[in-house]
């Protein structure tokens, strides 16, 4: 297989790692955490693999290319899973999922999220924009974001 040129084929930037570890460490009841190197996942796992030749993946790759316009794909996306007691849940717990990383174009990211979640409420302050829609919430600063989903 011939190696293809990819917008995602960039060196990994670990400059955000200290902030990510600090955020994860400050949360209670974390049951899982880690990071995903989007640049490597997309380049090696999709663009330069047989999987990337399927119609479904080619379509999804176009969406990822759009995502790369406003997300910094060189910086790993960090995630954490938090468990909290919930007597109303069948299992007695509620899981919260956090994803955070750096942003290249804050305005495009906010526009994309508010288009996708048309019922979302958006609140702006000097330092960030908060978008909320049911169990989904996201805060976006000039160059970072944190997203929370509950389920």
Description:
This protein is α+β, with helices and mostly antiparallel strands and 151 residues long. It contains four helices and seven strands. The protein has helices at residues 17-25, 38-47, 55-70, 106-116; strands spanning 30-36, 77-85, 93-102, 121-124, 129-133, 136-140, 144-150. The protein has a seven-stranded antiparallel sheet, with helices on both faces.
- Which stretches of 5+ consecutive residues score pLDDT under 50? none
Count every beta strand, where a strand is a DSSP E run of 2 or more residues.
7
Radius of gyration: 17 Å
Helix content: 25-40%
Numbering strands along the chain, what is their spatial order in the largest sheet? 1-2-3-7-6-5-4
Largest sheet composition? 7 strands, antiparallel
Distance between the ends: 41 Å
- What best-fitting shape do the alpha-carbon axes yield? globular
Q: Averaging pLDDT over every residue, what do you get? A: 83
How do the SSEs run, as a string of H and E?
A: HEHHEEHEEEE
Class based on secondary structure composition and strand pairing: alpha+beta
Q: Helical segment tally?
A: 4
What share of residues are in beta strands?
A: 25-35%
């Amino acid at each position: 297989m011939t190696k293809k040129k990819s917008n995602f084929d960039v060196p990994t930037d670990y400059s955000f790692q200290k902030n990510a570890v600090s955020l994860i460490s400050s949360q209670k009841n974390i049951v899982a955490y880690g990071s995903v190197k989007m640049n490597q996942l997309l380049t090696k796992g999709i663009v330069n693999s047989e999987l990337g030749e399927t119609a479904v993946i080619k379509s999804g790759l176009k969406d990822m290319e759009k995502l790369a316009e406003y997300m910094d794909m060189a910086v790993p996306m960090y995630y954490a899973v938090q468990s909290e007691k919930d007597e109303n849940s069948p299992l007695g717990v509620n899981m919260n999922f956090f994803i955070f990383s750096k942003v290249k174009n804050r305005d495009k990211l906010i526009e994309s999220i508010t288009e996708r979640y048309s019922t979302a409420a958006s609140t702006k302050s000097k330092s960030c924009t908060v978008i909320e829609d049911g169990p989904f919430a996201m805060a976006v600063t000039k160059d970072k974001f944190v997203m929370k989903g509950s389920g």
